[in-house]
């Protein structure tokens, strides 16, 4: 019988626990923190406090939904980083204590690797997974990377943002427009009714495969500022077009570099991961590339796009097979230590 792993994710503001048996997810429970909406972004101190309140109920719920006793667990996997240190400390401490109490192995997982390895979760609907090597565009609120995936844990970042992440650009644009946090999904919603070519923004000229989104955010801010001086109703009168235009520009920047990476490496298996992979426009562009016969694409299910413990559990299972365990000295890290 395949090993049963409990995965714990607490890198930011979502407390999540998942149970996996082999590559099949038995449960994936996520507790969101609504308190941050009042502040327009994640407040680290409030996040860590909420994790302390949520972690035991969330893990109990995951075990219950999976119909698994804690004594049936073969290992505990947890997010060691990157993320908010206070939040990571809650998950790390609980994982270490739980593993010690059950006398089972402890497995550390890099959050960004977890996003990529979510593509290896199998269920009744699909068991098709990427073949090595493949490219993965990992896009979230804190990261934008093009990763060359040579094996489960042999990954090379060949392109990354030199400043802001694409997800942050979405959220900041939404904040400029007066939309509530998190704003990325709302940009996507309103963009569906807008003209993506209504407003032009200069795309950043960054060498090689790296990205930059800070200039784009500034250009968007200046456009709104100047237009509001002439018409105080400019945003409400042009909301859909503004959302469609900024989204089109961000996605265009992402896709151009990814296409260059695919051409340079000769790799045609291409995946996307991270919270921004839920965006409908980028999913559409991926599908178009496959329909044109350019790529074989892998797009995660929506429940595996944002921060979740299922991706930590599958990474933990793959490490378990290799006997890659950690010890009680493991400490969380805020920035990724993987190159």
Task: Label this structure with key terms.
single chain; alpha/beta; Nucleotidyltransferase, domain 5; 5-stranded mixed beta sheet; globular
Helix content: 40-55%
Query: For the record, what CATH class of the largest domain applies?
Result: Alpha Beta
Indicate the structural class. alpha/beta
| Overall number of structural domains | 2
Strand content: 15-25%
Total number of strands: 10
Instruction: Write the CATH architecture name of the largest domain.
Output: 2-Layer Sandwich
Find the CATH superfamily of the largest domain: ATPase, nucleotide binding domain
Radius of gyration: 20 Å
Written description of the protein model:
- By secondary structure, this protein is α/β, with parallel strands linked by helices.
- The chain folds into two domains: 140 residues, Nucleotidyltransferase, domain 5 (2-Layer Sandwich), CATH 3.30.420.40; 170 residues, ATPase, nucleotide binding domain (Nucleotidyltransferase, domain 5, 2-Layer Sandwich), CATH 3.30.420.40.
- It contains nine helices and ten strands.
- It has a five-stranded mixed β-sheet with strand order 3-2-1-4-5, sandwiched between helices. Strands 8-7-6-9-10 form a five-stranded mixed β-sheet, sandwiched between helices.
- Helix 2 links the parallel strand 4 and strand 5.
- Helix 4 runs antiparallel to helix 7.
- It starts with a strand and ends in a 17-residue tail after the last helix.
């Amino acid at each position: 019988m395949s090993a049963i792993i409990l995965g714990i994710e607490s890198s930011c503001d979502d407390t999540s626990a998942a149970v996996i048996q082999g590559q099949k997810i038995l449960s994936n429970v996520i507790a969101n923190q609504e308190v941050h909406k009042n502040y327009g972004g994640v407040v680290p101190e409030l996040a860590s406090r909420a994790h302390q309140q949520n972690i035991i109920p969330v893990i109990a719920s995951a075990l219950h939904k999976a119909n698994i006793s804690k004594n049936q667990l073969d290992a505990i996997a947890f997010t060691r980083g990157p993320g908010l240190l206070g939040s990571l400390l809650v998950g790390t401490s609980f994982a270490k204590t739980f593993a010690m109490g059950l006398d089972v192995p402890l497995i550390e997982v890099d959050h960004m690797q977890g996003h990529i390895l979510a593509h290896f979760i199998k269920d009744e609907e699909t068991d098709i997974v990427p073949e090595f090597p493949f490219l993965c565009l990992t896009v979230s609120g804190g990261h934008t990377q093009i990763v060359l995936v040579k094996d489960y844990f042999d990954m090379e970042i060949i392109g990354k943002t030199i400043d802001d992440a694409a997800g942050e650009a979405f959220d900041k644009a939404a904040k400029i427009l007066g939309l509530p946090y998190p704003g990325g999904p709302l940009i996507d919603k309103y963009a569906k009714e807008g003209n993506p070519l209504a407003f032009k923004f200069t795309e950043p000229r960054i060498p090689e495969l790296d990205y930059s989104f800070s200039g784009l955010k500034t250009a968007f801010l200046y456009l709104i500022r100047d237009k509001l001086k002439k018409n105080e109703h400019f945003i409400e009168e042009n909301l859909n077009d503004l959302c469609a235009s900024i989204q089109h520009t961000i996605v265009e920047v992402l896709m151009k570099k990814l296409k260059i990476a695919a051409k340079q490496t000769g790799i045609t298996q291409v995946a996307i991961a991270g919270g921004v992979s839920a965006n409908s426009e980028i999913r559409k562009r991926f599908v178009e590339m496959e329909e044109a016969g350019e790529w074989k694409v892998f797009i995660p299910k929506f429940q595996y796009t944002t921060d979740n413990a299922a991706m930590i559990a599958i990474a933990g299972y793959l490490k378990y097979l290799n006997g890659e365990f950690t010890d009680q000295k493991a400490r969380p890290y805020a920035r990724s230590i993987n190159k």
